[in-house]
Each structure stands twice: as C-alpha cells, then as structure tokens.
Design brief:
It catalyses: (R)-pantoate + NADP(+) = 2-dehydropantoate + NADPH + H(+). It is an enzyme of class 1 (oxidoreductase). This protein is of the alpha/beta class and 308 residues long. The chain has 13 helices and 10 strands. Strands 5-2-1-6-7 form a 5-stranded parallel sheet, sandwiched between helices. Strands 3, 4, 8, 9 and 10 form a 5-stranded mixed sheet that branches. The longest helix is centred in the middle third of the chain and has 22 residues, at 185-206. The radius of gyration is 19 Å and the shape is globular.
Length: 308
C-alpha cells in the first residue's frame, strides 16, 4: 500500500514543498503525491508539469495525480493544506470525499487558528500544527519562484500519533525538505505568527516592502509597535516565547531581500481578497478577549477593512 499525500493549494508554500515531494517520489512504489488543483493551474500542471524556479536552478515536476475531483483523487493518508486562510472551510469541504477518519491533516497557513477551524469540520481527525519560513510566490499559473536560501518547515502535535508524524517526517527528509518535528510546536507556530502578522499588517498598511520599512524611521516604528503588541498578547496567553523574540524577529526581517513583501500586501495591491481576518483582525479580537491593548493592529484593521 502506498502512502498517499495530497497537496491542497499550489501557491508559494504548497507549490514549493509539494514540488520537492513530487520530484522525489515521482516513480516511487511507496509514496504517491497528489496535487489538488483546479482551473488554469490544473490544466497547466497536467500539460506541462509544475515548474519551481530557485536562485540557481529550476525543476519541473509531474505528480501522480492532478485533480480537484475527489473520485479521481481517492482516499488520502495525509493532507497538506496551503491555501489562503479565507479558503480554509470551502477548500477542505470540497475534498471531504478524500478524507477518512485516518487522514492526518497538516495545515501550513499564515495564521494560528487553522487547526481549530479544521477540527470544527473534521472533529474525528488528527489535525497537526505547522508553519513554514520561505520566500516564494506564484510567478504564473503552475510556476513557483523561490528566492533566497532560507526555508524551514515545522510541524507537530501534543496529541496526534507519533508514529504517523515520524513517518511523515521521514518522507519530508527523503525529499530534502528542511523540516523539524517540533515538541513545542505551538511556540514555533506563534514565533512564525509574530513575524508574519506584523510583516503582513505593516507592509499592507504602509504600502511598502521590507527594505522601505527598515529604512524609514516612521515605518520601522509602526512595525516595532506591532511586534510589541503581539508579543505581549502571546505572553498573556501563556506562550513561552524567547525573551528576545522582538530582536530575533527584526533580525530575521533584516536578512530578507530588501524588495520582499508579504503575500497579503501583494493581494491588497492586486485588488484580490486578502488574509486580513487571520493576520490582523485575529490579533485585535484576541487582545479584546485577553484584555491586551492592540492600538496599532486596530488602526491597521480599521483602514484595511475598508479595502477588503
């Protein structure tokens, strides 16, 4: 029996990591990789494969199946979810026919509320926690561009089967994915959330990329204010983040390409739906719940909610 892994969402995250998996297991007798895609992306991948462009190389991969039809996809052992957060419910409902009670679901979204939302849909399934650090985006349908050397994937669960998680980790490592099966996964997810929520909110509100924010004192002040608010919220929630989390996060940003921005900022500029609820509003709502003031997040939410 092959281990069947579905990749739901072929954006910068799902396309890149799904590409590595599809390349490694293209002719495998033990692992089968399925891309769950629709529309033009499905057509392009079926005809030409998925292209992943990196700084010094590129690859074209052909998964075993490319479809959005549950009857064609079949039952899955693992489902890796990497759509936008506003598509969580609709995308997962569309593949309900592929999910059995034994399917392990790994969300790789920007927000921190995905496991709770997925468990509401599939209460009998093991839903892991996960996050990634990577600079990648869709260049065109079925073409992913990944920039820079930095790429890390963290996943884990306090309650899920360790045997199943170790099996998935072995598959990741065989595909040369820089992954960590983390024992303190909630803290790892929140460290990423501190980084991405502040970055997405600041870039979208200021309409500036990383280099512009770091070089402009007023913009940098907005970004740092966001970091202080979200890290205070994390502390009140009882999360054990590093004492120097703010400095660590700033240093991570300084290592990013100057022209990099957030996917939310790109969506705002393009006039597309964007992840305001998961990356800005969630912090505001949790602040109200835990009586933590988040005035900068509130100001940004008030402005961007008029656009979204």
């Amino acid at each position: 029996m092959k281990t069947r892994i579905g990749i739901l969402g072929l954006g910068g995250v799902g396309g890149y990591f799904g590409g590595l998996l599809a390349k490694e297991f293209e002719n495998s007798e033990t692992v089968e990789i399925i891309f769950i895609a629709r529309g033009n992306t499905q057509v392009q991948v079926r005809q030409n494969g998925l292209k992943v462009i990196m700084d010094e190389s590129e690859m074209i991969v052909h998964p075993a199946i490319v479809s959005n039809d549950p009857r064609e996809i079949g039952k899955l052992d693992y489902l890796i979810c990497a759509t936008k957060t506003y598509d969580i419910e609709s995308s997962l409902t569309s593949v309900s026919g592929c999910i059995t009670k034994n399917t392990v679901i790994l969300p790789l979204y920007n927000g921190v509320d995905a496991p709770e939302r997925i468990s509401a849909l599939y209460p009998d399934n093991e839903v892991l926690q996960g996050c990634v650090y990577i600079v990648s985006k869709i260049e065109s349908p079925a073409v992913i561009r990944k920039v820079g050397f930095y790429e890390k994937l963290f996943f884990g669960s306090a309650t899920a089967s360790m045997q199943k998680m170790k099996a998935l980790q072995a598959i990741f490592l065989q595909a040369k994915i820089q992954s960590t099966l983390a024992t303190e996964i909630e803290e790892a997810v929140w460290e990423k959330y501190v980084f991405i929520a502040a970055l997405a909110s600041a870039t979208s509100y200021l309409d500036q990329n990383v280099g512009e924010i770091m070089a402009t004192p007023e913009s940098r002040q907005v970004y740092v204010a966001l970091l202080h608010e979200i890290t205070l919220l994390a502390a009140v929630k009882g999360l054990n983040l590093p004492n120097d989390i703010i400095m660590q996060t700033i240093q991570k940003l300084e290592k990013c390409p100057a022209d990099m921005t957030s996917s939310m900022h790109r969506d705002v500029r393009a006039g597309n739906p964007f992840e305001l609820d998961s990356l800005t509003e969630y912090v505001v709502n949790e602040g109200l719940k835990y009586e933590v003031e988040t005035p900068t997040f509130q100001k940004i939410f008030d402005k961007l909610s008029q656009v979204n």
